[in-house]
Amino acid sequence: xxxxxxxxxxxxxxxxxxxxxxxxxxxxxxxxxxxxxxxxxxxxxxxxxxxxxxxxxxxxxxxxxxxxxxxxxxxxxxxxxxxxxxxxxxxxxxxxxxxxxxxxxxxxxxxxxxxxxxxxxxxxxxxxxxxxxxxxxxxxxxxxxxxxxxxxxxxxxxxxxxxxxxxxxxxxxxxxxxxxxxxxxxxxxxxxxxxxxxxxxxxxxxxxxxxxxxxxxxxxxxxxxxxxxxxxxxxxxxxxxxxxxxxxxxxxxxxxxxxxxxxxxxxxxxxxxxxxxxxxxxxxxxxxxxxxxxxxxxxxxxxxxxxxxxxxxxxxxxxxxxxxxxxxxxxxxxxxxxxxxxxxxxxxxxxxxxxxxxxxxxxxxxx
Length: 367
Ligand SMILES: Nc1ncnc2c1ncn2[C@@H]1O[C@H](COP(=O)(O)OP(=O)(O)O)[C@@H](O)[C@H]1O
Ligand code: SF4
Ligand SMILES: [Mg+2]
Known about the structure:
The chain is an alpha/beta fold.
């Protein structure tokens, strides 16, 4: 599986002015949960009326001729919830994450965060959004400044968003290191003195430092060895409970989603092939692509070892997508109709969406 190029973490959007201290009442509007009083003023039944934390509708992102994302919709309710974006390299996962973070512009569709139109955010509301949504990249070596020690790296984020007064930053940084399982002595080390897993812990501590409401985890374990992978997944699992975390977990590996994600969206060539509750989708995929991805990870279900489906070839060039079903050149179940007719995303079971002409047959195990 190809690994996407290194991506350096963007510098904090708003550097603190020298000596800046947090001011009382300067709490950003999107970074914190609404207070109970504010909620009750807005609606008598806040739980029923609350919009999803993240709502993406018909998102389109283009890079020249390449349609990296071709009309993707997804929803994340917030609270303790993991939404997986699964697909091979080039399927548009990172681009969706970057569009959510406003690092790439959307050519169409909508992104809403707690009900607010993300593309329309300006000034203080945008700064508040930049705090509320944090990203952890695949390659921790590329996302941490090699010249900066770990403590100041975390303190920088704390001060940029005025989370604590300057004097308290080292202490808070040490507490965050402890939270991700690193001794406070790590604060004085440089990234090159750490293992890949330790660096990724620092990247997670830095992202958590500003108390985000949503984390985008872009292949957070793909650059790590197997043992470090397992430990980072364990850490994410622990933090999700302790911090009531909502996250988008981007991965090409189905093997890591079952424990960490309630819902999964499977992407192929910038479009949703299938979406649904993770357990149901893994137990009985309704799209041949989901079936192939799942069978590449037999440990997801040992009973599958016998029914392994090999996925041949590479995804097609995104600049020249195939006619009909974009998956048809690689699909073992393609029929004549698939070559000309684009399958629409449709509900096959409550909460389960599939874009395949033969979804019912696949789901029932008839093919
Ligand atoms: N900055 C960019 N410029 C041009 N094409 C890009 C850029 N970023 C991504 N792409 C293209 O968009 C498509 C989706 O890429 P990406 O979102 O990185 O996929 P994934 O994260 O699933 O591997 C690919 O065809 C990729 O080559
Ligand atoms: S629509 Fe046809 S080609 Fe596409 S996934 Fe379904 S069976 Fe395969
Ligand atoms: Mg990627």
